[in-house]
Amino acid sequence: MNALLEKILQSPDAQIVIDKAKAILLKEKKKRQDFYDWLKPDIKAEFINGETILHSPVKRSHLEASDNLNRLLSIYVDKHQLGICSTEKALISLTRNDYEPDICYWNNEKASTFHADTMLHPAPDFVVEILSKGTEQRDRGVKFQDYAAHGIKEYWIVDTKAKTVEQFVLSDLEAIEYTLHTKHTLSDMIQSVVISGFEIPVLAIFDKGKNLEILSSIII
Q1: Where in the chain are the domains?
Q2: Who has the most CB within 10 Å: 25, 83, 119, 138?
Q3: The whole model's pTM is what?
Q4: Partner residues linked to 205 by β-bridges
């Protein structure tokens, strides 16, 4: 049993706490619908624990790392017909919250449910967040917990300053917490646990020349 739930159920005022939580979540549900009605294609925003979070423009290092990794990943997935990849404007809708991760991947089974008007996407199988000063707390906090709780099997956290990639995985189907598979540095190769056969040098995420070299080997 989830530790927080067990703690609540051990309390004599459990029913009072649960009733209050239900009332709060009911109000939050209305705010979430308002968020959907307000959201526009040119706005990058997320709905997290009842609040709308607007995102500021990111630095070039963030954009380049995102572009480099997404280029390799999306072309590899397309070539091998493994599903669909999307970048930051794909809104994933989880039980309570809505996020726009930097990169997402859905397998063929999930991707087959998408259509031209799909705006709210289910939990991906693989997700990448690229750290920035304004997002690191959420990337390592609420998103880290929420992605694991919703069965997103693999989560990469990319640090453009340290030039590292932390690769987190769910240890088994019952897991609700990530374990650190490996923290990769520039000299390492990184291989996805979820996307079969996808293995690249970490350097290809941060260096355009290396990125193009690896891209050529994927295309051939």
Answers
A1: 59-219
A2: 83
A3: 0.92
A4: none
The residue written with tokens 């705006």 in the block is 119
Low-confidence residues of the chain: pLDDT under 50? none
What is the predicted pLDDT for the residue at 5? 84
Kindly tell me the burial class for residue 175, based on how many C-beta atoms sit within 10 Å of its own C-beta (0-12, 13-18, 19 or more).
Answer: middle
Is residue 122 within 8 A of residue 105, CB to CB? The reply is no
* Alpha carbons 99 and 116: distance in angstroms, whole number: 20
Region of 94 (left: φ > 0; alpha: ψ -120 to 50; beta: rest) is beta
| CATH number for the domain running over 59-219 | 3.90.1570.10
Helices 208-219 and 60-79, packing angle to 10 deg? 10
Task: Write the DSSP string, 77-111.
Answer: HHHTT-EEEEETTPEEE-SS-EE--SEEEEEHHHH
φ and ψ at 53, to 5 degrees? -110, 115
Please give the pLDDT value at position 173. 64
Residue range 2-41, pLDDT digits in tens: 778 888 899 999 999 899 999 999 999 999 999 999 999 8
- What is the per-residue pLDDT for 150? 96
- Phi, psi at 152, each rounded to 5°: -70, 110
Provide the 10 A C-beta neighbour count for residue 61: 14
CA distances (Å), 157 to each of 18, 49, 96, 183, 200, in order? 34, 21, 22, 9, 15
